Amino acid sequence: MTMNKNKIVSLIASPLFVMQAAYAADQSDSGFIADSHLSVLNRNYYYNSDNHSGGKDGREWGHSILTHFTSGYTEGLVGFGLDAHAYASFKLDSGRGRNRTDMFPLQSNGDSRDQSGSAGGSVKMRISKSELHYGNLRPYNPVFALADTRLTPATATGFMLTSSEIDGLDLDAGHFTSGKDYNQSHSDGDFYAGYAGVKGGNIDYLGGSYRISDNANVTAYTSRYEDLWRQHYLNANYTFALGEQRSLNLDANLYRTDEQGQALAGDIDVTAGSLTAAYTVNAHTFSLGYQKIHGDQPQDYLMMSGGGFQDSIYLGNASQYADFNGPNEQSWLIGYSLNLASYGVPGASFSIRHVRGSDIDGSKTAASSPYAYYGKNEKHHTTDLDARYVVQSGPAKDLMVRVRHASHRMTSGKSDIDVDRFRVVVEYPLNIF
Predict the structure, then answer these.
(1) What pLDDT digit, counting tens, does each position of 231-273 carry?
(2) Which position among 122, 185, 223, 312 bears the catalytic label?
(3) Residue 50 is among the residues annotated as catalytic for this protein
(4) Which domain, by its residues, includes 325?
(5) Residue pLDDT, tens place only, 157-179
(6) CATH number of residue 349's parent domain
(7) 300 tagged catalytic
(8) Is 311 one of the catalytic residues?
(9) pTM for this model (two decimals)
(10) Considering 37, 52, 175, 294, which one is annotated as catalytic?
(11) Which of 243, 347, 340 is nearest to 284 (CA)?
């Protein structure tokens, strides 16, 4: 149901009310109050999806106000705290059959809502360098990463434990039962296998990262998407210092996925890997990457009930539109990025990536599989552009303007579409305290 303006105002202010109530409840807990933060992010978002494959285009424009309150912890051996958020979004332009951008919650007639909002929170407990959270959370790791790619972030409801008791080792575990997609206003949504389009159950994960040195890091995770799959992930990252303002970074990613429980998405037997080399000299970074999928299903990952793909794919060639994760696919990446601070424009950056995928072969996929829509010897390519500028000083300090463009073309096959996607995002953060 669309919210009226009074409800929207109340929603935006709710984290502040939470903070005031907590303060009144116990002013003696100086850590709880002194370490609290309240911030507001204004986000203006224009999205244009130009479909060249005969389908309908999508074009919408909106504005959101994202309010976050984060408390400190009460004093003592065991500290307690709470976090809260309130999101409000407003439609500025849509309609006439153009609402196919996943920007807004939809009305019963399929139109985008004029305004909508959601709110949530979590309680937390800290012992030493370990923290346990329960509530509406935003986990972000290689097997369960919630996206923030439209007006409001996605959230999930459950438990999350993080620990940094051992120097250099960060551990991470979670159990989640439901979620709110970035185009929804309710938090009881389901989890899906994105490419299969099949609903699963709860999600569990365990993993962490270990910093071997200032230049080397390894990461490992294991996860279970109930009745869909078990997925394991490994990463190794190393940077070679080659002299003044020169370095070479190597980043290797590996996923292993098998069906789990009732196997609602069918048989899954996929190993996916990528290796990316990035050479940096002064303000310039040149990248070259290779990615390979071994298996007759794609390297699938999380989608939520609003239809939004999340960010749980850390493969090097995954791009704005295409992930180059089809059955048996191999792909190559070439990229370039520029930090314009070296040229007298601090806060400005630009990047371009081109990825080409080939040898996609779904001919051996079982006919009953929800993945049985890939052909044989399919090929495609994409080019991504990304430019941003962050104001460094003055009244507009931290104002960010970002322009993104993705162009995707199928050169052989019908498992995907030809499309151009253009986005302009303007964000202005305000730190209240």
Answers:
(1) 999 999 999 999 889 999 999 999 999 999 999 999 999 999 9
(2) 312
(3) no
(4) 237-431
(5) 999 999 999 999 999 999 999 99
(6) 2.40.160.10
(7) no
(8) no
(9) 0.91
(10) 175
(11) 340
